[in-house]
Specification:
43% of the residues lie in helices and 14% in strands. With 382 residues, it is α/β, with parallel strands linked by helices. The structure holds pyridoxal-5'-phosphate (PLP). Pyridoxal-5'-phosphate binds at residues 39, 99-101, 125, 169, 173, 201, 203, 228, 230, 236, 241. Pyridoxal-5'-phosphate (PLP) binds at residues 39, 99-101, 125, 169, 173, 201, 203, 228, 230, 236, 241.
């Protein structure tokens, strides 16, 4: 048999997909499931974005566009930095990507060489590590603690050995926690003094309940910023995101993007451009997420889930369940089968400590959150 590459074998499966499959099987058997495992908004793209897509379908042949993105969208994203962060970003530094997922390989390939070591927080979004491994880059876990809001610290970086890059995500998936402006500045300065490339995943910016988001563009001219229309803009399936990169990376990324992808889906770029003018409805989603978060933080302790990380942003609560189980995968399986509530085991996010944690997504409706609490309380009593 012809070979299967070692680099693809180094990539772990996404356990949440197994949970989703088990939930679908339960639903197919006629049961109802409350989905607290999904990491996406339950709402469609805003109406203005849909209208722009309809208009583009009628007027445009939806052909290829420039590899770095439609100029109007790059300009609009640059304006977003002025509006939101009071930061000057030239449109030339903005690169439209196929979701932020499409941005990671471009950023990593342009910034790092095979064998380079890249540090990242554990727990963290699993695709970072998996994309790094597939590209023959070494992911270096920085163990984090609740005391540091599960964010990397300079003290941990000092212990990491030689690294070429650092990935920071604020608000974070799976913890919903954030770095402060001074913490991000300290991390960026540490990186800049050592010529370490900071990669800042800002995909949950806009979905914030407490504190203030700082973009890495504000604190370092060398950082790569990753963002997306998937979360705040409620457009996961449109597969459109963006990078802001330092000038020296624009041309390398352009060459990579031309060859890998030619261009990002044109229809989605029209929709994304219009989404910037739909703030009211998008901010209403954030208000609902906040109400959901408050409801779960108040209700879950009575169901035995009382070690919760209060999310400052994103739509996740990270729960310590180590007093209830030493195998979160099994615990989530039982919760799904017996209570009809699907959550994600922590092993997806933290290979060393995730057997004692799980992630609860509150992106759904308030009625679903109420029902989840009711079911979990009954499960606990049962
Ligand atoms: C922290 C984080 N980064 C990146 C992504 C990828 O999202 P997308 O490719 O839809 O932009 C996700 C998706 O859940 C995420 O949680």
């Amino acid at each position: 048999m012809a070979k299967v590459s070692r680099r693809s074998e180094a990539v772990d499966p996404f356990i949440v997909m197994d949970v989703m499959a088990a939930a679908a099987a339960k639903e197919a058997a006629g049961d109802t499931v409350i989905h607290l495992e999904v990491g996406q908004p339950s709402t469609p793209a805003p109406k203005g974005a849909l209208a722009a897509a309809h208009a583009a379908l009628d007027a445009d042949r939806i052909g290829y566009v420039a590899a770095l993105g439609m100029p109007a969208l790059r300009e609009r994203i640059a304006k977003h930095y002025r509006e939101t962060y009071n930061a000057d970003v030239s449109p030339e530094r903005v690169i439209v990507t196929t979701g932020s997922s499409g941005g990671f390989p471009l950023a990593f390939l342009a910034a790092f060489d095979a064998g380079d070591r890249v540090a990242l927080a554990a727990p963290g979004y699993p695709a970072y590590r998996n994309i790094l491994s597939a590209l023959h880059l070494e992911a270096v876990d920085l163990p984090t603690s609740l005391a540091d809001r599960y964010q990397p610290t300079v003290a941990e970086l000092e212990k990491a050995g030689p690294i070429a890059g650092l990935i920071v995500a604020s608000p974070s998936n799976p913890t919903g926690t954030m770095v402060t402006r001074s913490e991000l500045t300290a991390l960026a300065n540490w990186c800049d003094h050592r010529e370490v490339r900071l990669v800042s995943d800002e995909i949950y910016h806009g979905i914030v309940y407490e504190g203030e988001t700082t973009s890495a563009v504000e604190v370092s001219p060398h950082a790569i910023v990753v963002n997306s229309f998937s979360k705040y803009f409620s457009m996961t399936g449109w597969r459109v995101g963006w990078l802001v990169v330092p000038e020296e990376l624009v041309r390398p990324i352009e060459r990579l993007a031309q060859n890998f992808f030619i261009s990002v889906p044109t229809l989605s770029q029209y929709a994304a451009l219009a989404a910037f003018e739909c703030r009211d409805v998008l901010d209403a989603h954030v208000a609902r997420y906040k109400a959901n978060r408050d409801l779960l933080m108040a209700g879950l302790p009575a169901a035995g889930l009382d070690r919760l990380t209060p999310a400052q942003g994103a739509f996740y609560i990270y729960a310590d369940v180590s007093h209830l189980t030493n195998e979160s995968r099994d615990f989530c399986k039982r919760m799904l089968q017996e209570a009809g509530v699907a959550t994600t085991p922590g092993v997806d996010f933290d290979r060393a400590r995730g057997a004692g944690t799980l992630r609860i997504s509150f992106a759904g409706s308030m009625a679903e959150m109420e029902e989840a609490v009711r079911r979990l309380k009954a499960w606990r009593r049962g």
